[in-house]
Design a protein that fits this description.
This protein is an alpha+beta fold. The protein is 22% helix and 29% strand. A 5-stranded mixed beta sheet has the order 3-2-1-10-5, covered by helices on one side. A 5-stranded mixed beta sheet has the order 4-9-8-7-6. The longest helix has 29 residues. It is globular, with a radius of gyration of 23 Å. Keywords: Signal.
């Protein structure tokens, strides 16, 4: 009789252990993918305080995006490119395989480039921004007919711009880590696609 009780106890524990493993497997399957890693080893942008309920990689809520993390905007070209979403105030660094390696929010200035396809025209390690703030990792991609230059950059001190509405400037400010990633990714002639 004691053996039968032991056998039942062992069988019960085995069933409980298998159920626990099955539960963990279901949880792992339902968990979101890990953020994409850029060639530099840095991961896609993380959610900031106050962004609860938003996708940590793209910043969009499920209702806004309805797509997987790092979802690249539709009609944004193919292959290796930088994608800048005007309405989302977000950039995607897209590898030659067509997958986003990094995405992050940006702070635009007073003028935005028109949607279209461009290419990196020039770069500068450090300059002074139109707002008088020292900036680094400047990646320029367009100059409009009025002479406004559009490009990505990061303030050395990590500050966000406070654009003067009376000035027409086209700087697109990034956080320093994102600026470094852009600098490493977007060499001269790298395609830049601006979407609405």
């Amino acid at each position: 009789m004691a053996r039968s009780s032991s056998g039942i106890i062992v069988a019960t524990l085995t069933v409980a252990a298998l159920a626990g493993v099955g539960f963990l497997a279901v949880q792992a399957e339902a968990a979101p993918d890990h953020p994409a890693t850029h060639a530099s080893g840095q991961t896609a942008g993380k959610a900031k305080d106050g962004d609860q309920g938003k996708d940590k990689a793209t910043g969009a809520t499920g209702q806004e995006q309805g797509k997987a993390p790092n979802a690249i905007p539709e009609n944004s070209g193919t292959g290796l490119r930088v994608v800048y979403g005007l309405a989302q105030k977000r950039v995607w660094l897209v590898g030659s395989d067509g997958k986003a390696t990094r995405t992050f929010e940006v702070a635009p200035s007073t003028v935005s480039p028109p949607p279209g396809s461009y290419a990196v025209t020039s770069r500068a390690p450090t300059v002074t921004g139109s707002d008088g703030i020292p900036i680094e990792h400047v990646v320029r991609f367009h100059r409009d007919a009025a002479g406004v230059v559009f490009g990505f950059s990061a303030a050395v001190d990590g500050s966000s711009p406070k654009p003067d509405a009376t000035k027409k400037t086209g700087g697109i400010r990034e956080q320093p880590a994102d600026g470094r990633a852009m600098w490493e990714f977007a060499v001269n002639n790298t395609p830049v696609v601006v979407v609405p």
